[in-house]
Amino acid sequence: MEPILTSSPRDNDVTERTPLVLKSKASTLHSSASSYKSVSSPVEAYHVRVGSPFRDSQPEISPTPPSPNEDVLYLDDDIERTEMQMLTITNLFFDSCLSGDAFQAQRLIESVNDQNDVQTMITSIHPKYHMNALSLTSFYDQPLVMRCLLDLNFAKDFVNSNAGIERHGATALMLVQSVPCAVMLLQSGASVYCQNSTGMTPLHYAASSGHAGITSLLLDFGADPNCIDHRGATALHWAVYEGFQYTAMLLVGHGADMSVQDTQGQTPLMIASALNDAFLVKQLVLEGSPLHLCDRKGRTAMMIATQASNRECIHALITGANDR
To answer: Are residues 35 and 276 in contact, defined by beta-carbon separation less than 8 angstroms?
Structure first.
């Protein structure tokens, strides 16, 4: 199976992004994962084979604004651009998107007379970050430059454009890092139904990174909580696997089907049981998650928790079933 991207844009911020619950490191929920590898845990099914949509080949530090002395180009409106000049303008345009320089970005757009050249410049893929201009402003949270791009009269033609194959064709809405930028994209026609090359939707991305605000926004705009990717996983599978409890319960509250089984036959409850997330196990059981479904190896959630010696989850499964 084709691996997907595996690096969070902010490596030191892996906690769930919601002000409503105490932050708890997602890594604590993975403490038992290594002990479960011998029985083919969901960790193997999700992390070893595919990982997380944001982790992989990301820059270790945020890009810094380019030095004003790096490139000098006089932007005269009345001259015809050569191929080399257009390449220079495109590189400067990428720099302005990365640094959030909306004035420079607007100036560079206005310096190109041909609308086709402007569209080519905006949809070009950055050779290092493998994203187009709109995706760069989305991923690095540059709302001023994003507003500049979306105000163009042909914005609808590129608002759902794809990033490079290294990013599995993700759209700007999949890579968005803040609610204000997500609102701008949605109001400009970004689709909540589009899928990347691995079948993931913007809701999968938001849930797997713990963006509770963006998750709620996408659901309000009609995102399907039960849409599956090519592994058969829903957004709830990803939220549970990454340990984002609030986001997981938010999805359940919006009608996420807890009985959906992925290609390995795993339900969100099985994944929570494997990762010893007793809180999520009990909450999922209380909300009606089926207890007797089996994965492809014939194991129920209780059997998975027992094989992994996850006593807290065993207790949560029993008490949750009794409290229904």
So the answer is: no
Structural domain boundaries of the chain?
Answer: 82-183, 192-257, 259-323
**pLDDT surpassing 60 at residue 86:** yes
DSSP class per residue in 88-129: HHHHHHHHHHHHT-HHHHHHHHHH---HHHHHHHHHPPPTTT
Tell me the pTM.
Answer: 0.77
Amino acid, single-letter form, for residue 45: A
Fold of the CATH domain 82-183: 1.25.40
Please give the CATH architecture assigned to the domain spanning 192-257: Alpha Horseshoe (1.25)
Q: Which residue has the higher pLDDT, 3 or 110?
A: 110
pLDDT at 254 over 50: yes
CATH architecture of 259-323: Alpha Horseshoe (1.25)
Tell me, rounded to whole angstroms, the distance of Cα 65 from its chain centroid.
25
